[in-house]
Amino acid sequence: MGTFPTRRGVVLAVMLAIVGAMATPLWAEEQKADQKKAGPAPKIQMAILLDTSNSMDGLINQARTQLWKVVNEFAQTKLAGREPALEVALYEYGNNGLPAAGGHIRLVVPLTGDLDKVSQELFALRTNGGHEFCGQVIDQAVRELAWSTSKKDLLCIFIAGNEPFTQGKVSYRDACKAAANRGITVSTIFCGDHDKGIRTNWADGAKLADGSYLSINQDQAVATVTAPQDKELARLSAELSKTYVAYGAAQKRKEQAERQQAQDANAAKSALAAAAARAAFKASKHYRAAGWDLVDGVTEGKVKLEDVQEDQLPEELRKMTLAERKQYVAKMAQKRKAIQQQIQQMTAERNKHLAAQRAKLAPAAAAKAEKSFDAAVIRAVQEQAAKKK
Q1: Which of 97, 210, 290, 379 could be 128's S-S partner, Cβ–Cβ 3.0 to 4.6 Å?
Q2: Cα separation of 226 and 237, whole Å?
Q3: Do residues 110 and 145 lie in contact, with contact meaning Cβ atoms separated by under 8 Å?
């Protein structure tokens, strides 16, 4: 004999059906309400200024392969319990392939939360020649980037190179003081002997702008310590990318999806450890795609599905009703959250493994590991974040 649903059960079923088919999903509404109550999120803004003269291939390669490790350091920071929004800008300088009238300097990417774009441009950098005007590139970064005016935000410039800090018509002292007056720290990374960096004024530049002075060996092969979780994290990263639903003009949809997949591939080609670090970042709140992904766009209140024209949607959504589209986006959001949780759990296990491996390193090996681009940036970030609490 069959059983009949209770009145409460019928009501619950109807409510669930309505929630699944109607307006903005509850998970999105709750997140928007929390964001509005808390006010604007604090920011971390970082500009990376890389010397791309002939001798800097090693530096660029370190920056490419260790980008995700570096930005993961930011993913762990909090201000008064809140996770800050992360924006990164990229400059190249010292490249004779760039116009001499502009100081051989190029703004590659302005301050952006799209770290895939930053990664893409890092892999596109090429070295050439060398007139390295540190003061001028710092001055340009201070003047033309959209820096926050809030005193609670962490604003920082990292400049790396290997020629005297005094080259060029713009005084590094004036540029660094101007940065400090705007609340922007300047950390200097000299590629070479530590004492030579001091003699050629790299340390003085950092001192003037409340930053850190560090030295690295740019030609050192980056030691990648593998972990048992690396391969699975790379696989989960690829699965996570499948939950993104690109919207907008056809060319934009194509470019964004291809960029995401290309940076997955670039990280994997660099090393499994780099792919694992990228997976960890993609599973954090700092990996933002609201400008092109419907899931993030709806969640953050940047877009309403009912306002998106059919020709702005991917093929698989065009034949759906509005209710079906909302259900599909909600399903992708749920799937994404589940994969992100897997990545976060596996990353925690990976971090424990790596900490144990580092503890076993001989002092000489540990010191060598500290002479890389990522180690220098992370050390400086930790010092400056502590000052900002």
Answers
A1: 97
A2: 17
A3: yes
Q: What is the CATH number of the domain that holds 111?
A: 3.40.50.410
For residue 378, what are its two tokens? 């992370």
Residue 185: per-residue pLDDT:
95
**Non-local CB neighbours of 199 within 8 Å, separated by 6+ positions:** none
Among 49-53, 89-93, 168-172, 271-275, the minimum mean pLDDT is found in 271-275
Residue 189, helix vs strand vs coil: strand
Report whether 323 contacts 21 (CB < 8 A): yes
**Interval 345-364: pLDDT, tens:** 999 999 999 888 878 876 65
User: Do 132 and 281 fall into the same domain?
Assistant: no
Cα dist from 34 to 30, 59, 302, 324, whole Å: 6, 41, 15, 27
Q: Which residues contact 356 (CB under 8 A, 6 or more apart)?
A: none
pLDDT, average across residues 138-147: 98
Buried-exposed string 243-259: b where 16+ CB fall within 10 A, e elsewhere: bbbbbbeeeebeebbeb
User: What kind and span of H or E run contains 92?
Assistant: strand 85-93
Q: What share of the chain is helix, strand, coil (3-state, %, to 5)?
A: 55, 15, 30
Q: With helix as H, strand as E and coil as C, how does 271-334 read?
A: CHHHHHHHHHHHCCCCCCCCCCEHHHHHHCCCCCHHHCCHHHCCHHHHCCCHHHHHHHHHHHHH
So what's the pLDDT on residue 66? 87
201 alpha-carbon distance from chain centroid: 30
Whether the Cβ atoms of residue 153 and residue 84 lie closer than 8 Å to each other: yes
pTM here is 0.83
Kind of pairing between the strands at 154-161 and 105-112: unpaired
Task: Tell me if 21 is assigned to some domain.
Answer: no
Which residue segment(s) compose the domain that 65 sits in?
43-221+372-387
Longest dimension (CA), the chain: 92
What is residue 387's predicted lDDT score, i.e. its pLDDT? 77
What pLDDT, on a 0 to 100 scale, did the predictor assign at position 111? 97
CA-based nearest residue to 91, from 181, 166, 183, 186? 186
CA–CA gap between residue 351 and residue 335 (Å, rounded): 24
167 neighbors 94 (Cβ within 8 angstroms):
no
294 and 177 in a single domain? The answer is no
- Which one, of 355, 350, 374, 356, lies nearest residue 223 by Cα? 374
